[in-house]
Amino acid sequence: MALYKKQKQQNMQFLSGNEAVAIGALLAGCSFYGGYPITPSTEIMEEMAKRLPETEDGVFLQMEDEIASMGAIIGASLAGKKAMTATSGPGFSLMQENLGYACMSETPLVIVNVMRGGPSTGMPTCPAQGDVQQARWGTHGDHPIIVLSASDVQECLEMTVIAFNFAEKYRTPVILLLDEITAHTREKIEVPEAGDLEILSRSVPTMPPEWYIPYEDTMRGVAPMASIGSGYRQHVTGLTHDPHGFPTQRPDEVEKLMLRLFRKIDQFFPDIMLVEEFETEDVELGIVAYGSVARAAELAVSLAREAGYKAGLIKLQTLFPFPRPQVEKLARKCKTIIVPEMNMGQMSREVKRVAASLTSVRTLNRIDGQIITPSQIFKALTQG
User: Fold this and answer.
1) SS percent in the chain: helix, strand, coil, step 5
2) Would 269 be classed as within a structural domain?
3) What is the value of pTM for the model shown?
4) In this predicted model, what pLDDT tens digit does every residue of 282-338 receive, in sequence order?
5) Count of domains in the chain?
């Protein structure tokens, strides 16, 4: 997906990943934040509390918990606002029921989850990547979802903007996964002006109110979204519903609804599946990584190249829908693929699912609250 519509201006700032997320949200047009503080995502909330009320129509609310936070941003989005919240593991667990409601009601919003050690309270100040499968499957029912990731502070800003664009374009919740290292790393980045960016907003109805069908099956699978209070009739429910929003259990209507929810994502995979490749032209030893681990992997690839090994990296910016075409292409070139991650192998399951018949897939896992280092990845690449 193209993000910059013209050359970035040189506006350098020294920011943390969490601060960059807040700036990215404002650049994307976020005008409502409802949240509850939790380590290591709290700085996002603090920045939004400071910056959002300074905008023309920005509203910030600290809610009593994460359940209420999700309810608040759903309501704000239904009223026409671009809305966001941020949390970490335990709070993300509390959000799952309302996340399902947002999926069924096709409510665009952004949830930033800064992953930390778990389960339960776990290690609040230590990095982990244990929420990957929860992001995909945490809420009940069979549903599509878009899950993005960022590996450095510049990407924290840019992927936040992309998260809002996807949410608005496809009328769906979007999850942005960071980890504690990425969120708390502080480095110099380029902060674009709003006019430098391609900013998308939801389509709104142009027909007379009496003709409006809130969940119409359009060619894109995404119906125009009228704001509550704008004069168009609304019926919003978490129940399976017909195109007018009224609950139904008719098998033909239920099947049509569910197929459309998947189709509006499936048919745009090339737009949604974002990856970056590093030294993959002649690759023999591949790495698939995401988040802060991808930065370590990039250095490991450089070290391996200097030592005479043909190593290469695919950095996943989209985790789900899983970028199968790109990973399959890598697998066809490689003798082996290594998947380093700070969990017991959550993304490696996806890599093995699509690549195990094509090449060897090995995991490199760390679950002690410490980062995976470039030397660890280099050793895995070169010593087998």
Assistant:
1) 40, 20, 40
2) no
3) 0.97
4) 999 999 999 999 999 999 999 999 999 999 999 999 999 999 999 999 999 999 999
5) 2
